[in-house]
Amino acid sequence: MVEIARKICKRLHAYLRMDRYSGKVYSVYPNAVHLQTSIGMVSVLTNARCLHPFSVVINSTKQLERFAIEEGQEVLLGDERIEIPACGFSVDLSQATDFDLSVDSMQTLFLPTDLSIRLRHLLRVIETNSRQDDLGPLVIEARSDSYCDEIRALLPALHTAFREQDPNACRDAAAAIGGIGAGLTPASDDLLCGYAAAYAALSIALGRSNQRVLSLTREMASGAAAQTTELSAAVLLQCGEGLVSEDVYQLLRALFSDVPYAAMVASAAKLASGEGAGGVNLLTGVYLALSHQYGGRDD
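The structure assignment produced for this chain is given below.
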């Protein structure tokens, strides 16, 4: 059976056009299959899902578990196709639209004079969508759990490391924070991804060197990746290379522009609802980065 890909991460597509790769099925969910490959974690997502780094979205709305895909099965990638021979599953990439998910592709970003107002709107979205066990209480008045308390004590070192642009300190601070929380992608890792993405976008708006920014985000990702799950480590490392999800990409473009507040709020709300608690954690990381790396907060 051949499924048609609708859209694909541009950087992943570039790799697949250059060579053939192999791997194995890492995990299978109704709407996502994660493939462990020689170029990193690659994901096949159903039509309803937002595009993520190194992922492809197929047109099918059928639950992926129904394709008899199982963990450990061999995967072949290349020549405009992703194949899992054991179950006959194949994805045709030839008609997929490329989406550039790299933050450094957003060269039109600028620092809006009303960024503080945009951050207040972002804070309201976090407050509205914050639920038990996420990290919203780090930036809003709400009852916090032990995860929040643990992370709160570690954040000052992260803020200082990025403010001083010290790669080694970024790695050490992130290593202390990485892997805190339950699940395959712990809450603290989502926060770090949001933090790194927002810092990169802010740096573009301020005209900083992209290579300097990457030296910080790569070290941050490396430090946290060593402390967490294999899947979450892959997400962190992709983020460290400046790659973000489609929803995060749209939010950053809205934050660093003059689009109406309603459009920016809609982007933030879509991210919060589309990723569940993980979306709120990402937004919390975005808010923390911007409020501490530009807003002048020292707490």
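Interim note for the steering committee: The beta strands are 2-9, 21-28, 32-37, 40-45, 55-58, 74-78, 81-84, 89-92, 97-99. Residues 76 and 114 are 48 Å apart (CA to CA).
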